[in-house]
Amino acid sequence: MIGGLLTPLDLAALLVFLACWACYAAVVDRIPSVRARSVIAAMDEHRRRWMLALLLRENRIGDTAIIGNLMASTSFLANTAIFILAGLVALLGAPDMGRRVLAALPFAEPPASDMAWEMRIGLLVLIFVHAFFELTWALRQFNYCSIVVGGLGIGPEHAPQAEIAAAVANRAARHFNTGLRAYYFGLAALAWIIHPVALMLASLLVLRELHRREFRSVVREALRGNH
């Protein structure tokens, strides 16, 4: 036991979890040659085409409805993060009850102390606080995008303003994607409550699923025009 809180297996599981999340985010978000092959990059180009197409039509009711739908889905996840955080704070206040419930599960290894339990719940709290901030920032940027779209003129001479709108929309989508990624890894972190090995397996499973969806999915091929 390290410091009375983490066993070597706990520490190894936590390192695997952090490495999966940090390395995936660093590679996908920071390396242009990798990002260019992702579904995220494909959608960036489609949003840019969307904003340029706006210059050719006067009626933009449908476009504002699309932005509203994007804001609604972002707001839903941000609100859900708040409810999750409320539940996690409640769990922090009842470690004995939580450990007793966990002990009834097969193959579960309840934390040995209240502090160990609080560390596991604390990790989840940090993850969903991060998700909340990313999603609310994405929501604000979608709001900014709607204002920029409202100011777009009609005609190709307004292409620079359309490019600005596309850049704002793409940045909002990037933060939305980061917040959604936090949800995925939050589910993986939940497995730590059951067993450290479960955390490692869940982290690798989330990593595999994210890679499949962003680089190997049918949707990605369709968006890139290869389907």
Summary tags:
227 residues, mainly alpha, 79% helix, elongated
* Beta strand %: under 5%
Shape: elongated
Query: How many domain modules?
Result: 1
Whole-number mean pLDDT: 91
Detailed description of the structure:
By secondary structure, the protein is mainly α. It has one domain (8-26, 36-223). 79% of the residues lie in helices and 0% in strands. The protein has nine helices and no strands. The chain has helices at 8-30, 32-35, 39-54, 61-92, 95-103, 114-150, 159-190, 196-216, 218-223. The termini are far apart.
Provide a short characterization of the protein structure.
The chain is an all-alpha fold. It has helices at 8-30, 32-35, 39-54, 61-92, 95-103, 114-150, 159-190, 196-216, 218-223.
Question: What layout of secondary structure does this protein have?
Answer:
Layout: H1 8-30, H2 32-35, H3 39-54, H4 61-92, H5 95-103, H6 114-150, H7 159-190, H8 196-216, H9 218-223
Helix pairs in contact: 1-8, 3-7, 4-6, 6-7, 7-8
